[in-house]
Amino acid sequence: MERAVRELWAESRDLLGLHSPDDAAAAAADAAMPRAEMPPTPLAFLRDHVSPGRPLLVSSAATSHWPAASLWPTDSYLTDALRSTAVSLHLTPDGRADALAPHPRPSHPGAKCFASAHVRQVDFPTAVRLIRSSDPASGLVAYAQQQDDCLRGEYAAVAGDVDAHVPWASDALGCLPEAVNLWIGSACSQTSFHKDHYDNIYVVVSGEKHFLLLPPTEHHRLYVRDYPAAHYAAEDETELRLKLELEEPERIVPWSSVDPYPPSPEEAAAQASSFPLYFEGPRPIRCTVRAGEMLYLPSMWFHHVSQSPGPNGLTIAVNYWYDMQFDIKYAYFNFLRSLEIDGSSSKKTDALEDDLEETND
Hints:
It is built from 11 helices and 18 strands. It has 361 residues and is α+β, with helices and mostly antiparallel strands. It has one domain (1-338): Sandwich (Jelly Rolls), CATH 2.60.120. Residues 142-337 form the JmjC domain.
């Protein structure tokens, strides 16, 4: 069975024209990512990317007309425009929200849990100050994001600085985006491997986003397993000291076990030993999205995201979520993930996964 699945990995990448380069320098240069210098026509986008489920990186020509392209990277524009606005700030001790963390109970040594951020409403200038001062060494990393159409909600005062939708994508997909979200963070924040039940147009306005991508056919490489849910809570409201608490009643979350950037040689060895399908398989597709560029990320693609700030000390991005089509490809994926390959996956209900598709990007 494992041999057949490995052949599927190779064939699917070949069909999509996404050959993973063996040379490390070529991989670092995003050699496998399809690119367009100008936005595609709706027909070309539908034919070449939406229908086959093939990602696309579009140059900054796609956003050169946005007022946000020149205004948001400045030091003061957003702070002035949102000075009296309360926003949702997500707080973690290490910049890893919606990710695995050590189990908080001493009775479970070596075990992991799924940890969500502590969310606090603060005024926007305070949010920016906390984001810029984020430091895992101090135990506090801040990230402004709220995955509930927040650009048209909390940030409505500046929503007009970007397009309300992506016209060529909306025409190809046959609908308008269900949600448009704003993300503001620093280099300290990253997102663990996950997938979304949305077609995603991801636009960087300031700084850079660094993606690791795996097609849906490579589900088994991420060792999705069940973990108890937990969340960070404020232990000290004044100094914002955070502690991890298990959710009550217990809630189980299926999540990827793989950390592609282990923090130490010891952890790297443990990860490589525990998750060989990932570390010994084909390289993930690497893609850096720079200021002004758009990434089309098809639904169900797994992605890990890290980021680098722009000159203003912030990474700012907007994403457009379009509802995915639950067609035969979704049925194929559900069949594939039901297969047991060397203990790499466990069977999950759709309800559990559907509840957890959106996360920190």
